[in-house]
Amino acid sequence: MEVCPPPSGLEAEYETLFTTDSLLFLHELISTFNEEVDQFLWLRVSRKAHLELSGDLPSFLEHTTHIRKDPNWRVLPVPPRLQRRHVDIGDMAPCDTQRFVKALKSPAQGIQVDFDDGNCPTYYNQIRGIHNVVKAVHNQFPNVPHISQAPVLMLRPRAWNMVEHNMMVEGKEAPGPLFDFGLLMFHCGKTLFDNKSGPFFYLSKVESFMEARLWNKIFVWTQQKLSLPLGSIKATVLIENVLAAFEMEEILYELRDHSAGLNCGIWDYSASIINKFGHRPAFMLPDRSKYVDIEKHFLRSYMDLLVQTCHRRGAMATGGMSAKLLPRDTLGEPYRTMLASVTRLKLLEIKAGVDGFMVYDLSLIEPMQELFKLHTEGDNQLQQLRHDVSVSPEDLLSMPSGGVTLHGLKYNIAVGVLFIKSWLSGEGVFFYRGNVEDSATAEISRSQGEAEAKHCRRHVPGGGPQERFPRVHHYLSESGPHLPQLSELWAGGGPGQTCAPFQPLTFRLEPREPRLRGYAL
């Protein structure tokens, strides 16, 4: 095993995390499961290639019909601290110490402690973030509630496609999620369990029930190694991939001893549709700012099916994160308008039967908790079995009507490029036009831009087709005066300058490739 030296300024944190015992634990964890991780990543590539070459569409699996038809199995009940989680704080990168401490002091029921979409996984950020979690769990932050009283920590390791370049095990770079999970469990697992506050996790980007089975094996192995009772670890799977939507019952079944439910994540989910089927014109999503939200049939069907599936099996069903940022002036009309918009969409989720959802802006915590008080009874909505729901494969794959608009194109360009700037600066999120943007929204922005460049010859400013679909660099140049951040990145291509035609950016899909190559570590 090889580990890079500590990032400058984090020598003490490094020594705390990388003890002899923790390194031995990480080595055994990673070497035990490394080969299976590689196999599943190659299976993802194979499955995507099959869909592209065959023209097939996903459906509910025939060979697991017996699991879906069996009415008797249930997931184990979750501990009391997970029974009532109406509002979690989302995209909480723990390397941001100031925001993390604010979250620990907040009235939220939970915190998505995010090493994935809301975090840029530089070596510095990973060490700082994991060490901050250790400090929170061991009550080392001053004037912060005890871990048993603070919002429950829902720890979110990186997704399987991310690697930790700063650790080699048996000559291979360590899988990012096992690096994160291993350190968090070794230093925090027993203390969280003893305080009846964990260990609880979010699992990102799961694509199949076989990947859920792998996580379950990892949980069982880890509990045995750390002398924790079976079922101590609980995990919420984020259904962020369209293929996973067809295997929700199977995913719950594989994790039935360790399940904390399923979660909707509409932007990664929508981006996955483009990723899996974007080579087909029928699956080109329209302008996401105008035509893609939870009210659209394919997303509403996905959420309804998730709620029905979870509650039928005694599992929690949670909604996505509101990315809206409330204006600071609480007396102004923009504040009232933004709050009304968030309230309307989140009320739809509550009425669909979700047991909770996430917000990014801490100012939204109490208004959204009040919304739950007004429209629900008790700690959760497990009694809402949604017998009225019947979802077909066609419902899940029904693309909304609408057009590719000039506004949507410009917005996607801005989000995609500004995210790269944020990422290369070591930050996982940035703020743009009243929203927080992270890798999930950057991915759908990129995916839409690539699909539009591939399939569109015209764009729709507001109605029917007009001028030819333009070169993207023209809009990058045009946006420069309004987005100084873009002009810092855009070398050449300004007014009157020659610039190469747009070549769509493709995030590498080979196993173990980071979503963006070249981030600073």
Layout of helices and strands, plus pairs?
Layout: E1 2-3, H1 11-17, H2 20-54, H3 65-69, E2 87-92, H4 97-105, E3 110-114, H5 123-137, E4 152-156, E5 163-169, E6 172-175, H6 176-194, E7 200-203, H7 209-225, E8 234-239, H8 242-245, H9 248-254, E9 259-264, H10 266-277, H11 288-291, H12 297-312, E10 317-322, H13 333-352, E11 356-359, H14 365-375, H15 393-396, H16 406-424, E12 430-432, E13 435-437, H17 439-455, H18 472-479, H19 484-489
Parallel strand pairs: 2-3, 2-11, 3-4, 4-7, 7-8, 8-9, 9-10, 10-11
Antiparallel strand pairs: 1-5, 5-6, 12-13
Helix pairs in contact: 1-5, 2-6, 2-7, 5-6, 7-9, 10-17, 13-14, 16-17, 16-18
What is the domain tally?
A: 2
Radius of gyration: 22 Å
Mean pLDDT: 88
Helix content: 40-55%
Basic shape: globular
- What is the first-to-last residue Cα distance? 19 Å
Give the number of helices. 19
Judged by helices, strands and strand pairing, the structural class is alpha/beta
Percent of residues in beta strands: 5-15%
Q: Based on the structure given, which CATH architecture of the largest domain is correct?
A: Alpha-Beta Barrel
Count of DSSP E strands? Answer: 13
**Would you identify the regions where 5 or more consecutive residues have pLDDT less than 50?**
463-469, 487-521
Written account of the structure:
Residues 152-398 form the Malate synthase TIM barrel domain. It is an enzyme of class 2 (transferase). Its EC number is 2.3.3.9. Residues 446-469 are annotated as: Disordered. This is malate synthase. The structure is a single chain. The protein has 521 residues and is an alpha/beta fold. It has two domains: 2-395, Alpha-Beta Barrel (TIM Barrel); 406-457 and 470-491, no CATH class. Helices cover 45% and strands 12% of the residues. The protein is built from 19 helices and 13 strands. The chain has helices spanning 11-17, 20-54, 65-69, 97-105, 123-137, 176-194, 209-225, 242-245, 248-254, 266-277, 288-291, 297-312, 333-352, 365-375, 393-396, 406-424, 439-455, 472-479, 484-489, and strands at 2-3, 87-92, 110-114, 152-156, 163-169, 172-175, 200-203, 234-239, 259-264, 317-322, 356-359, 430-432, 435-437. The strands form three sheets. It has an eight-stranded parallel beta barrel, surrounded by five helices. It has a three-stranded antiparallel beta sheet with strand order 1-5-6. Strands 12-13 form a two-stranded antiparallel ribbon. Strand 7 (200-203), helix 7 (209-225) and strand 8 (234-239) form a beta-alpha-beta unit. It is globular and about 55 Å long.
